[in-house]
Model the fold of this input.
Amino acid sequence: MKNLLFIVTNVNQYADSALKTGLWLSELTHIYHKAKEKEWQITIASPKGGNTPIDPESLKPLVLDSISKGYYNNPGFMNELAHTKSLNMVKNESFDCIYLTGGHATMYDFPDNTTLQEILRDQYESNKMVAAICHGVGGLLNVRRSDGEYMIKDKNITGFDWFEETLARRKNEVPFNLEEALKQRNVHYRKAFIPMTSNVVVDGNLITGQNPFSSKEMAKVVVSELEKQAFM
Done:
């Protein structure tokens, strides 16, 4: 039995725009589905607790896959998203994996959240899994190890790249360039040869996914790596 913490956003709008944002649904539903299949324990938390909005872009027919659509129409799942725990409520609990979901909204309430930074530092330094996908990778930017170095320094890592931001027509809306911010932390940034295709990078107990199209592979890799740990 594994115990997983999925962290989602509380933000529903870009700071300098009327455009709506929020959780990119598939970046939660695929890992959630895999964990449910394994009958693992799941906790969903957000910086403030309470409701997490869903990015309307992630509900469009071209990107809303069958698994995500099923969960969107599942009252029990949607109730979980409406009543997430706060990070303060879960910060002293033990988890086998902490997984940062994405959506542009996470760029606002993940990177500078000191409680999130503490949770991730303790998780990483306990040699337990830290995973993040797409813009959720921004939540790793300011996490420092106990020795003061950035946790992601010298790590192989991916995240939503700047050209993908152009394709998404959001480069004038986002608060920063995630790809450049990661490179400034002296990471070994790895991106897919073809934009908007699946890319998952594993570096020890750190796993990152590049974009929403990595959701399915990300879920498979996280589950596989957790199962490996059971035999080590």
Observations:
- The radius of gyration is 16 Å.
- Residues 102 and 136 are 4 Å apart (CA to CA).
- Residues 215-229 form the longest helix (15 residues).
- The longest strand covers residues 41-46.
